Amino acid sequence: MTWFFLSLVAILFWSGSDLFSKIGSKPDDKYSHWKMVMAVGLVMGLHALFLIATGTPFQLADIITYLPASFLYILSMIFGYAGLRYIELSVSSPVCNSSGAVAALLCFFFLKETMSGLQFFAVALVCGGVFALSVLEKRQDDALRRQEGGAPDQKYTRGFLAILFPILYCIIDGLGTFADALLLDTVIAEEQANIAYELTFLAMAVVAFVYVVIIKKQPLRLPEEKPKLIAALCETAGQFAYVFAIGANAIVAAPMISSYCVMSLVWSRLFLKEKLTKAQYAVIAVAAVGIAILGME
């Protein structure tokens, strides 16, 4: 049951990362998601270098070996961070973390891992919940546009982009988890995979820094970026636990860890004071039930 404990650790820290990522996402800063990439890449890179310095075996070739999963995970996170500028955390997190259902389906069809009838039902709940949330977001955006005479304030301009970014995260992160299941079972160990991912993220952080600070000449004010750094610390701790949980039991750990969206909902209500419609809460509850079933089965 080590995978179960590690999954709980990942849930705690990744929900914390969600909260502080949302706090650090500024709707009026179009480079906010790239600054988030810088923070996460910096912390992960330092953690990777610490692991190497303390004797964890690692070869540069491991970065290439694990690159398919690293690329998918990092790309999904960029979309996720971008989406937080447009949408409430309490909506974004359940959509993003439905990726466990995507991963479970890919493992079933391509790796021939087994799923019960109840698990298929749970996947249907998750997918249906995501679709329903996208419809509700579109209707809410249309209503706000009409209310504002067709030119809503920026905070209401959500609609297509608001739901597109979390859905892209969901699909791409699910593909990343599927790549993880392939690689961790065959060609690379968990420790080396984690270091490879973190060093790849560090490289992406350097690219983001060059783009934002050097090319676009945007200032970086560290006191204003504290939430991003806290989110980065939580993300790194969650990732460290996640990769071992996936390596031990991918088809169950992946959807279970995706249930951290439930904790994100709690944090968003307690600390961000987000409020949703009854229909949105109902749909999120349906998706959360599906995720919980996948985690318990």
Structural topology:
Elements: H1 2-24, H2 32-53, H3 61-65, H4 67-83, H5 89-96, H6 99-110, H7 117-147, H8 159-186, H9 190-215, H10 226-248, H11 250-258, H12 260-271, H13 278-296
Structure, explained:
It contains 13 helices and no strands. Mean pLDDT is 83; it is low at 151-157. The chain has one domain (2-296). The chain starts with a helix and ends with a helix. By secondary structure, the protein is mainly α. The longest helix has 31 residues, at 117-147.
Short recap of the structure:
With 297 residues, the chain is mainly α. The chain has 13 helices and no strands.
Please count the beta strands (DSSP E, at least 2 residues each): 0
**SS content category:** mainly alpha
Question: How many H/I helical runs?
Answer: 13
How would you spell out the order of helices and strands? HHHHHHHHHHHHH
Give the N-to-C terminal Cα separation.
14 Å
Q: Tell me about the biggest sheet? A: none
Average pLDDT metric: 83
Gyration radius from CA atoms, angstroms: 19 Å
Strand-residue proportion: under 5%
Quaternary assembly? single chain
Q: What is the global morphology?
A: globular
Helicity level, as a percent range? over 70%
Number of domains: 1
